[in-house]
Amino acid sequence: MKNKIYLKVNTDLIASPQVLSWFEQMNLPPIPDKQIWWQCQTLMIEGFTNIVEHAHKNLPIETPIEMEAIRLDEYIEIRIWSQGKPFDLKQQLRQTCEFEENEQERGRGLKIMSAIADKLSYDLTVDNRYCLFISKYYQSCNGSQELGVKS
């Protein structure tokens, strides 16, 4: 494990710049492929935004959102814990139209995340919260990008 960071913020999109600033620590030393780093940032902010706008939609602003990011030798893991209602990520992804056919605003963030993440899941934890798990490879042992299996 190279780097592990943790952040807790309120359920408020105003915290988005703080979240991105905090997440910058994952890019030290810089990931050589700037597009991969941009994708990691996109995954982080899309995940946070989805928790605020959907999972915590009817919860008080004081409801905490906890985030953890870990940079390992080949990939970055992001975990975002929420306290919202149950949500079936796989079913939602199946039901959401592809980008070109998606006239509505709902579901685009999930499709983006699904397209660029190597692993993406949203599961109930033992403490009755949900964890949005995202994994993104930024390099592989042989130096080329490796694609993981989405779960």
Radius of gyration: 15 Å
User: Could you say which structural class the secondary elements and strand pairing correspond to?
Assistant: alpha+beta
The major beta sheet can be summarized as:
5 strands, antiparallel
DSSP E strands, number: 5
Could you characterize the architecture of this molecule?
Helix 1 runs antiparallel to helix 2 and helix 2 (34-55) runs antiparallel to helix 4 (108-116). The longest helix is centred in the N-terminal third of the chain and has 22 residues, at 34-55. Mean pLDDT is 85; it is low at 142-151. It contains four helices and five strands. By secondary structure, it is an alpha+beta fold. Strands 1-2-3-5-4 form a five-stranded antiparallel β-sheet, with helices on one face.
Quick overview of this protein structure:
It is built from four helices and five strands; from the N terminus they run βααββααββ. The chain has 151 residues and is α+β, with helices and mostly antiparallel strands.
